[in-house]
Design a protein that fits this description.
Chain lengths: 155, 717
């Protein structure tokens, strides 16, 4: 067990944890932050995607909590500004992207990362960046539209 | 054909009127529906949907529409929204018929006690709910108007309704909420309780965004594993590597010594798909998984030890009904198609929370078939169904998987054995290796023709038995009977018949999106392309020439126009078609495939035209068709579950290679035919799968010249 200090969505937490415990387990099961989802447990589906240190996308299910001590962690719950949605969230609503919704936190977090580094992505850029986030409902076509819409709104 | 006509106010009997009112002495209006008013349109040979409507008819009196004091219209839907958007569409319908403001209309899942008999399956939700929801809303509106007329001492026929408000000619207004209590006391409504003509609806038919979109994009929507159930400890189950294997011996000494471990108990195999195993309870799911992996378990070999796909497939091939010899003097064509087992793999794996205390239990499980889930828990725990309270949270997809409820039963057993509330998590490996699958199937088709005229088309199917989880199939050995798929040919050929046999094999199965047509119609539609080619005809013209169903013909013509069928394309690119007539709807799909990149073909363009009778929410329908296209591409080209020595080889999303982002077409459009006058809604959730699957395969075959016989076409991972 090690003492871990985490800053999640601007709030500080201090916990005694096994160093290898995945960040996702800590967020969901110990801190009650359930927006990031567990879809595979192996870093293969991207449903757990969060941001660490700015807008770096990480897969929380394979990120040992000890590796993010002292870093800024942002989950889907932390991207809106109060009741004002992040432009990517708003684009998701406007394009009616979600179906079951289970993967969408991961999709949105990954899309925010993409737009942070590439504000006007092409279809090819989107395909490459988003390839790690699986959707089983088949929302890809609308995710692509929503990313283009968000890119326009942020221009 | 028997048709339901709108019920007039005069036609309602006193008995039915009394049954309408759920809470005569209540403070708000809560309306239920007399079961006798739900009617199926079955005539001649019913499709499975019509059978299901008949079966669920007896449960219609459990539908409830409520007008709350704070002016919300709440329909308690006994059907699960798994992402297919039915709650959004039902809210549109309630709002339109009731004249309730959209923002003041809610649809929520009915408490399980209120969903006796209902199951969310066979793309049936709108077919099932169209009549009763309109009746309920019309009845509620009539009562609210009557209550306002009584309050103001006005002729009820002079009042109008708008945005959850009754309005008098002099401008006086009263909200539905403030009239609700009085409406509950109305004996006989003073205005008609007949639903209005659907042509007067304002929202129905207009593309509408899903009601829970904001909750989803903010992470606020709570799925089962997100719920805060006090005291619930995390649990996972060590499951046999080989399907159907049991426990010969086990030692948990090392596991118990690990941090966070709370308890370890054995689960005995039982009915309802419970495979048995060792459950580990811990502070977190991570610690539970660590301890699970530290268990020393000796498994029995199980029924599938030493057996693989080929062994099971040989059983199916041996069971194939024989095809008739081709007519002497005719030309003929034979084809065969093989499909693998296929997991549903919804993004949210199964999971359940259970709290069994003494003689009662509380369960949280997103079930497509709640009364069966409750009964399964009762059978396993020995509790009475009346003492089991099933909560139904939103779920992360299902595709048929949640017609079964192993997780709910297991969680209940673990909770009962340990005396604790338990949060059971199925890992993705559990989902893919210890779950259920679309049945493996084998197909043989033969067509014969003379002088350019088709005189026979036969289709023999042997499939692993589909465990649909219905009481109707309980106790029947499906191997002893020819099975009824409900899939009908859409063509007019001479002798046109389909024969299916099912065999009970040892791999658990379940209904997968487009249960039977997902392989039967797909095979037929691939064969139609082969047949047209053999007869020297264009696939579009050949279909148009032989299609029997006018609705399908219209869809096909439309999609050919949208996709510019027959356009000159570069080498290695080709178009393909597929059609379907099922679920009370018709559909056609055209896709264009680029097969120039070796084993990485891509859909470049995709088009659907669908006739769903009365489209409630075209935007939701479009989403379903987009999803069906990706499912179709996955099932035909990418994924399957392969048995090797009794174990499924694909364990997670690396080898179960579900399509990723770059496999979605850049261009895709959907045409939804407008509502037909006097029509009723058909289903759309599964509608796109068979035509898209066939269209993708047909396009790939034409682009590459390959003859397709075995799925997945690219061989799986």
């Amino acid at each position: 067990m090690v003492t871990i200090e985490l800053r999640v969505n601007g709030r500080e937490h201090t916990l005694d944890l096994p160093a290898d415990m995945p960040l996702l387990t800590v967020l969901r099961e110990l801190l009650g932050i359930t927006g990031p989802k567990n879809g595979c447990g192996n870093g293969l589906c991207g449903a757990c995607t969060c941001h660490v240190d700015g807008q770096q996308p990480v897969r929380a299910c394979i990120t040992p909590v000890s590796s993010v001590t002292g870093k800024d962690i942002v989950t889907i719950e932390g991207v809106a500004d109060g009741t004002t949605l992040h432009p990517v969230q708003q684009a998701w609503i406007d394009e009616d992207v979600a179906q079951c919704g289970f993967c969408q936190a991961g999709q949105i977090m990954r899309a925010i990362s993409l737009l942070a580094e590439n504000p006007q992505p092409s279809d090819e850029d989107i395909d490459a960046a988003m390839a790690g986030v699986l959707c089983r409902c088949g929302t890809y076509v609308r995710v692509r539209r929503a990313i283009h819409r968000a890119a326009r709104s942020e221009r | 054909m028997q048709r339901t006509t709108p019920r007039s106010a005069q036609a309602a009997t006193d008995a039915s009127r009394r049954r309408f009112l759920k809470t005569a002495a209540g403070s708000t209006l809560m309306l239920g529906l007399p079961a006798t008013h739900l009617q199926a349109r079955a005539a001649g040979q019913p499709d499975p949907g019509e059978l299901e409507i008949l079966r669920q008819r007896g449960a219609a009196d459990r539908l409830v529409l409520e007008i709350t004091a704070d002016n919300l219209a709440v329909f308690h839907a006994p059907l699960l929204d798994m992402g297919q958007g039915i709650h959004t569409a039902l809210a549109m319908l309630v709002s339109d018929e009731l004249d309730a403001h959209p923002d003041l209309t809610r649809v929520q899942i009915a408490a399980a006690g209120g969903s006796q008999g209902y199951r969310t399956a066979y793309s049936l939700s709108m077919r099932l709910m169209w009549q009763p929801v309109r009746r309920l809303a019309a009845e509620a509106r009539a009562r609210l108007v009557t209550a306002a007329a009584q309050r103001w001492n006005l002729d009820a026929n002079t009042l109008v309704t708008r945005d959850s408000t009754v309005i008098a000619p002099d401008g006086r207004q009263a909200s539905y909420g403030e009239l609700s209590a009085a409406a509950a006391q109305v004996g006989e409504p003073a205005v008609s309780t007949a639903p209005r003509d659907p042509s007067g609806y304002r929202q129905v038919g207009q593309g509408t965004n899903r009601a829970n979109a904001r909750a989803i994009v903010t992470g606020a929507q709570q799925y089962t594993q997100d719920l805060d159930v006090p005291g619930a400890v995390h649990a996972v189950i060590a499951r046999p590597e080989r399907i159907g294997a049991g426990i010969a011996g086990w030692n948990d000494a090392r596991a118990r010594a690990l941090p966070g471990v709370i308890d370890i108990v054995a689960i005995t195999p039982g009915g309802d798909g419970v495979t048995g195993g060792i459950a580990v309870l811990a502070r977190t799911s991570h610690e539970a998984i660590m301890a699970r992996d530290a268990l020393e378990i000796e498994w029995t070999p199980g029924p599938l030890a030493g057996r693989s796909d080929a062994d099971l497939r040989a059983q199916l091939v041996a069971a194939l009904p024989p095809l008739l010899p081709a007519t002497p003097g005719s030309e003929s064509l034979d084809a065969s198609y093989s499909y693998p087992y296929l997991a549903h793999a919804p993004m949210e794996t199964l999971g359940a929370i259970a709290n069994v205390q003494g003689e009662s239990a509380e369960i949280w499980y997103a079930s497509q078939f709640p009364d069966q889930a409750t009964q399964a828990v009762a059978r396993a725990t020995g509790l009475d169904t009346e003492n089991i309270r099933l909560h139904i949270p939103p779920c992360g997809g299902a595709f048929g998987r949640r017609l079964h409820h192993e997780a709910a039963v297991e969680a209940a057993l673990v909770s009962q054995a340990t005396g604790r509330p338990v949060r059971l998590h199925w890992t993705r490996e559990d989902d893919l290796c210890a779950g259920r699958y679309r049945p493996m199937s084998e197909h043989r088709l033969r067509a014969s023709w003379i002088s350019g005229q088709v005189i026979a088309l036969e289709h023999a199917v042997a499939a692993a038995w589909s465990d649909l989880g219905t009481p109707m199939t309980a106790g029947i050995d499906p191997s002893a009977m020819a099975s009824y798929s409900g899939v009908r040919s859409v063509y007019r050929f001479g002798l046109d018949q389909q024969k299916m046999v099912e065999r009970v094999l040892d791999v658990p199965t379940g209904s997968w999106r487009a249960t039977y047509s997902g392989f039967i119609t797909v095979s037929q539609e691939m064969f139609i392309d082969r047949l047209a080619d053999a007869m020297g005809q264009d696939p579009l013209q050949f279909r148009l020439q032989h299609l029997a169903a006018e609705r399908v013909r219209a869809c096909l013509g439309k999609v050919a126009e949208m996709g510019n069928w027959g356009a000159a394309l570069p080498a290695g690119h080709a178009q393909g078609l597929g059609v379907l007539n099922e679920f009370g709807s018709a559909a056609a799909c055209l896709v264009q495939v680029d097969a120039t990149n070796g084993n990485e073909p891509r859909i470049t363009r995709a088009f659907f035209a669908v006739d769903v009778g009365v489209p409630l929410n075209p935007r939701g329908i479009e989403a379903q068709l987009q999803g069906c296209l990706m499912d179709a591409w996955a099932a035909m080209f990418r994924v399957g579950n392969h048995l090797r020595d009794g174990t499924m080889a694909e364990r997670n999303f690396d080898s179960f290679a579900w399509p990723r982002f770059d496999e979605a077409p850049r261009e895709m459009s959907v045409f939804v035919f407008p509502a037909s006058a006097g029509g009723e809604p058909g289903g759309s959730g599964e509608l796109g799968f068979p035509p898209a699957a066939a269209a993708c395969a047909n396009a790939y075959a034409r682009a590459t010249g390959r003859t397709i016989e075995s799925m997945p076409i690219l061989g799986g991972a």
